[in-house]
Amino acid sequence: MNIENIRLINFRNYKSLDIDLNRNMNIFIGKNAQGKTNLLESIYMCATGRSFRTNRDKEIINFNKNQAYIGAKIRTGNLQKFIEIKVDKNKQKRIRVNKVELNNFRELNSGLNVVMFSPDDLKLIKGGPIERRNFLDMSISQIKPIYKHNVGRYNKVLYQRNNLLKSKKSRDEILNLLDIFDVQLAKIGTQIILYRQQFIEKLSKLAEKIHNKLTLDKEDLNLEYISNVDYKSIKDKINLEKRYLSQLKKTVNRDLAIGTTEIGPHRDDILVNINNIDARSFASQGQQRTIVLSIKLAEVEIIKEDRGLYPVLLLDDVFSELDEERRKYLTMSFNNMQTIITSTDSLLLEELSLLDKSIFYIENGNVIKQ
Length: 370
Known about the structure:
Belongs to the RecF family. The protein is α/β, with parallel strands linked by helices.
């Protein structure tokens, strides 16, 4: 799959942009704060319907403007799709695929898959559990659209249950109503847990192989799915649902006392180990970068296996952060997929001189093709 054209109007610092992209490699060179990451953000939104930088869509609108527009022509195999996203300060975000309007971003199944690697991805290691849950949700949603729908439903029911726990209703009334929410949470939450468990198992195996190559077999990487729902001893969906429901019942008194739900995938995490040691506590900056690179390249392979096509790889100012061996390994991946790279360093062009590519220079939202 590849992006053939991207058009932006009043998106961040881009007043107007219309460029055709190389089906192999595209390099955008520019100083900091010129719009390089903004461009990658617009592409990411065409794949997921959401920004990776903010939950407030209106922040993408150019200063003193009321609307922003993203249009992208993509090709997946023999099929071409046209994705459009319109954000208005006074209206709901609108998304269209081939001129057909969607009800919300969760319906977006554009056929465009992306894997993003940026310096901020080090939060996958050092950040809190929410960073790793967000990574899981965005990654799984790209290959299993129903998963995105389930997460939305789960969060809605969870919000209603937590409001009930905080309400001034009598204890008996709350307990009666909780039964309704608990059944829904257990049913939807079980599906989320099973999807996450399967994804992390596959991701861990692939990332371990890649990490071994990157470290010359000096380090073993392992990813472990952590959930407070006891899933490890149960293999089938029905019994896991029963276990989940049972745990909700056992913790109801504590939930009432603190006014929130303790049990469920909203508390999930990923344990990242290097040579059986928790990477969050002991990994150096260089080790963290190598771990994230291994995870991202493993995600690329999962998408290829599931969709039959490689995703578009988005690299935001990461080349300068990697040592020579890591850069060489990453470069080897470029032959298989469309890659869009941003950098402040034009010396990068020397390393990639033999590859088919288009080169663009960015300054203050203006893009010039070399």
